[in-house]
Amino acid sequence: MEYRKLPHGAEEISVIGLGMGGIHNASEGEIVKTLHAAVDAGVNFLDFVPSKACAFGGYAKALRGRRDKVMLQVHIGADYSSGEYGWTTNARKSIKEFEARLASLGTDYADFAFIHCIDEDADFDKVMNGAAWDYALKCKQAGTIRHLGFSTHNAGIARRFLATGMMDLGMFSLNPMYDYTDESAYGKGSADDRAALYKEFEAQGVGISVMKAFAGGQLLDAKASPFRHALTSYQCIQYALDRPGVLTVLPGIRGLADLNELLGFFDASPQERDYSVVGRFAPPETTGVCVYCNHCQPCPAGISIGLANKYYDLSHMGDEMAKSHYLNLEHHASDCTECGHCNKRCPFNVDQMSRMREMGGYFGI
Predict the structure, then answer these.
(1) Cα torsion at 258, 260, 261, 265 (round to 10°)?
(2) Measured distance CA(101)–CA(63) in Å, rounded
(3) Which of 124, 114, 139 has its CA nearest to residue 48?
């Protein structure tokens, strides 16, 4: 397992966590077996928004004796009063359901409490100026909530949450389809705007937990994909993990077989994870921008081109730590020999040699 540190905290979060939208299809015994196997494999980040409330019994059993080994992402606004998933902006119901979820999971705290599924400005205004947000702040102070977060599919709403200065983590829908097309309501925002948003998350020290990494399975099916080409789950996971700010990807699972398939990511070769084919599908107007995919590697001069670009972009956005991260790299842009290797290999048509010259002047070495 690989881990990434929460910027606003000491927690190390597994780069693959678990979404639970489809786990209700498994028996209680299968749920317990699956979660035990996940924890044993080092998975320590779990989101709890199943499609049906019946799944919570299996969760509770699986967590007994293992609560301290996992971090739970529990949502304020997820409504299971009917027995099935729903969402609400009603403060009283949101609070009641949040407390019911903690009780059903057999715990007295949430590692992360998320303001749930806010995609409209009116909903943001209602929730963030109401009793539900006041409740979240009080629980944070009391320790019932360890970290505050939010979930949205809307880049503009994400920025409003970031502007509060109170968030530690944001759950956001992220995949090549949402980043490079406008064919889904779950991927709101232009390619350039979404790319800038990920950098804003990182610059502000707010992590991203990724939902819909496979676009609901569309990207895994050539007929359903807007690119008319199937990507693999491993390509989608690596794509998400390479975006700035991303700490963990939360694919949905239905049981042990799905878990084992996910964990195969760590044994996959670089070629199996390589998503550079996306560059062939991206609209021409979105190319020319480094996405840190490292398809240009290995650099003959030893420069970590993806990281150098990332720190350069973040520094431009005002991230004060980015320059020191850049300076700590073993090789810098000034080491570039302009051999052209990176330009020939870049699937997104970035003129990396020109970028290296810019960086050398900007950072002064």
Answers:
(1) 140
(2) 13
(3) 114
Confidence at residue 27, expressed as pLDDT on a 0 to 100 scale: 86
Identify the residue with better confidence: 163 or 314. 163
Residue 58 confidence (pLDDT) above 90: no
Q: Which of 282, 102, 232, 248 is nearest to 174 (CA)?
A: 248
Q: Which tokens sit at 261?
A: 């398939």
C-alpha to C-alpha distance for 111 and 281, rounded to whole angstroms: 39
Q: How far is residue 321's CA from residue 315's CA, in Å, rounded to a whole number?
A: 8
- Taken in order of first residue, the domains within the chain and their CATH numbers are 3-280 (3.20.20.100), 287-363 (no CATH)
Winning range, highest mean pLDDT, from 86-90, 168-172, 304-308: 168-172
Q: Could you tell me the two tokens for 248?
A: 């963990």
Tokens of 317: 């956005």
pLDDT of 48: 79
Tokens for 76, please give them: 């304020």
Q: What is the DSSP string of 169-197?
A: EEEEE-SHHHHH----TTSBS-HHHHHHH
* 56 φ, ψ (degrees, to nearest 5): -65, -30
pTM of the model: 0.88
DSSP state of 301: T
In the block, residue with structure tokens 């084919």: 277
Nearest to 238 by CA among 206, 210, 259, 205: 210
| Chain CA centroid to CA 153, Å | 12
pLDDT of residue 54: 66
Average the pLDDT over 150-164 and give the result: 95
20-43 pLDDT, tens digit each: 777 877 888 998 999 999 999 999
For the record, the structure tokens of 255 come out as 């049981």
Query: What whole-number distance in Å separates Cα of residue 292 and Cα of residue 314?
Result: 12
Q: Both ends of the chain: CA-CA distance in Å?
A: 36
Q: Which helix (H) or strand (E) holds 232?
A: none
Helices 352-363 and 305-316, axial angle in degrees (round to 10):
50
Residue 342 near residue 305, CB atoms below 8 Å:
yes
Question: Read out DSSP for 47-87?
Answer: E---SBGGGHHHHHHHHTTTGGG-EEEEEETEE-TTSB-EE
- What is residue 147's three-state secondary structure? strand
